[in-house]
Amino acid sequence: MEYLYYKSKKGNFGDDLNGWLWPKLFGTNGSGAGNGFYFVGIGSLLHNDSHVVKGLDIDRKKVVFGTGVKPSKVYAKLKLDESWDVMFLRGPLSSGELNRKDDYITDAAYAIRQLVDFEEIRQQPKKYKVSLMPYFHSTDFFDWKKICDQLGYHYISPHSEEGVEFTLKEIAASECLITEAMHGAIMADTLRVPWHRFILSTPYTEGGRISDFKWTDWLMSIDIPFPQSTYIPFYQKGPINKLTKMITNNFLSLEYLPKGKVGKDVVKKLKDIDLFYLSEDVKISEIDAKIHQKIADFKLSYL
In what order do the strands lie in the sheet with 177-179? Predict the structure, then answer.
């Protein structure tokens, strides 16, 4: 068995969950040699431009376990042949994009709740009233520790420099989490820590349509389809933007990043957030039961 997932050079908590979680549930990652199969788990990997799934051995089985799809207007739809076994997808949007009527439950990361030591991770003493986790690309633009000091919040790095389990315990030790990173919110939900989404760099670093698709896909799967998010303008229009658009017939638009102003906007916008979300306990129980069965099915079929 070969675990497939995106690996960021600087580390990304959501993707790095794969290398930590699946060996605990299913055993050590194999080399991929011989008659092994591919395991596709956490991430939005099901699209033709995915470096993770490009060039895979067409004859080897690919098992999809709670993976997400990227929208087809941005990425060409991935055509799945008989070598793909879709056990379940992240959400209804992913299922709709593939046009296969495949099952969806929720994001694969909810499988963390099946670990024998999950309660030990979850039951951390609460040390932080409010914690904040930015998107991993947003750390290139701002000093988030300084921002958190100004806000009186606890900073949780999206890069998991001290390991995935340390980051999970930091979230569990928080009374609530403000997060730009989707898997910050997902892990908070699994750990029963109320969360609030803010939007800053993702429309530019990831693409607004892609980011909203991923979040909505997951949120619909946990019956929170339209939560209120905090939007903070990132790149902003320059003073001669209107003239430039007129001269170029809307072909060019001048936008720039005024770091000082945006940094102040971040502090201002995130200062007084008091609306947080959490999936219902009954929904979590339903998800737990379904994923438990999928794990049993996977072990019976492949291990």
Answer: 154-155, 131-133, 177-179, 195-199, 230-231
Q: Could you report the per-residue pLDDT of 11-50, keeping only the tens digit for each?
A: 999 999 999 999 999 998 654 444 589 999 999 999 888 8
Residue 260's Cβ-count burial label (10 Å; 0-12, 13-18, 19+) is: exposed
Burial class (CB in 10 A: 0-12, 13-18, 19+), 123: exposed
| Dist CA 298 CA 303 (whole Å) | 7
Give the chain's domains with CATH numbers: 2-116+284-302 (no CATH), 118-279 (3.40.50)
Long-range contact list for 260-265, CB < 8 A, 24+ apart? 261/236, 262/141, 262/142, 262/200, 262/232, 262/233, 262/234, 262/236, 263/142, 263/147, 265/232, 265/233
Per-residue confidence (pLDDT) for residue 210, from 0 to 100: 92
Instruction: State both tokens at 66.
Output: 């709670």
Whether this prediction's pTM lies above 0.90 is answered by: yes
Strand pairing category for 62-69 and 44-46? parallel
28 vs 24: CA distance, rounded Å: 8
Q: Among candidates 202, 205, 201, 176, which has minimal Cα distance to 188?
A: 176
